[in-house]
Amino acid sequence: MKTRLLMLTAVMSCAFAGNAMALTKEEYKAQNDRISADYKASRDKCGTLKDNAKDICVSEAKGVEKVAKAENEAQYKPSPRNTEKVAFAKADAAYDTAKEKCDDLKGNAKDVCVKDAKAAHVKAKEDAKVTKTAADTSKDKTDKVAEAKKDASSEKREADYKAAKERCDALTGAAKDGCQNDAKAKYGMK
């Protein structure tokens, strides 16, 4: 637990440290080397664990590394695209770890867990796309943002529907049919 808090603290301090100005090439390389070293140390600590706990630990370590590298890149070359990449890295890291945690479950509970993780992943990625589009400075920004929000809403609704539908699979007969109809109505599916 302390290791995870230290990793999170290190990542967060890096994220806030360079936001005011871009990194030099030497700082960027040094930061990447430090990130790689931190990842190796974190992964080595996972070696004492067994089974799925080890898989979760490794997934968390990889996620912290990916996010830190994306943040380092965004500090080195600030742009809306690199900011989006940071959000994608965070979403991917959270999704990968959530899927590993789902491995402790069985049957429909595991399926629901995976669908919920996927829904959260889709939401985070779609929000990042909208944020990137909102950073656009072109004349037709308003139209682009409206279209991005519409697309994001559709993708989020679809992911939520799939998760709700998976929850219905635990039921049988009329209860299952009612559950699926309720999910269709709630998420506007045909």
Features:
single chain, 190 residues, mainly alpha, 7 helices, 0% strand
Give an account of the 3D structure:
It is a single chain. This protein is 83% helix and 0% strand. It is built from 7 helices and no strands. The chain has helices spanning 2-17, 25-46, 51-76, 80-102, 107-134, 141-168, 173-187.
Could you say which structural class the secondary elements and strand pairing correspond to? mainly alpha
What summary fits the major beta sheet?
none
Q: What is the H-and-E element order?
A: HHHHHHH
Q: What fraction of the residues are assigned to beta strands by DSSP?
A: under 5%
Mean pLDDT: 87
N/C terminus separation? 46 Å
| Number of DSSP strand runs | 0
Rg calculated over all Cα atoms: 20 Å
Q: Provide the helix percentage.
A: over 70%
Summarize the structure.
The protein contains seven helices and no strands. It has 190 residues and is an all-alpha fold. α1 packs parallel to α3 and α4 packs antiparallel against α5 (107-134).
Write the layout of secondary structure elements.
Blueprint: H1 2-17, H2 25-46, H3 51-76, H4 80-102, H5 107-134, H6 141-168, H7 173-187
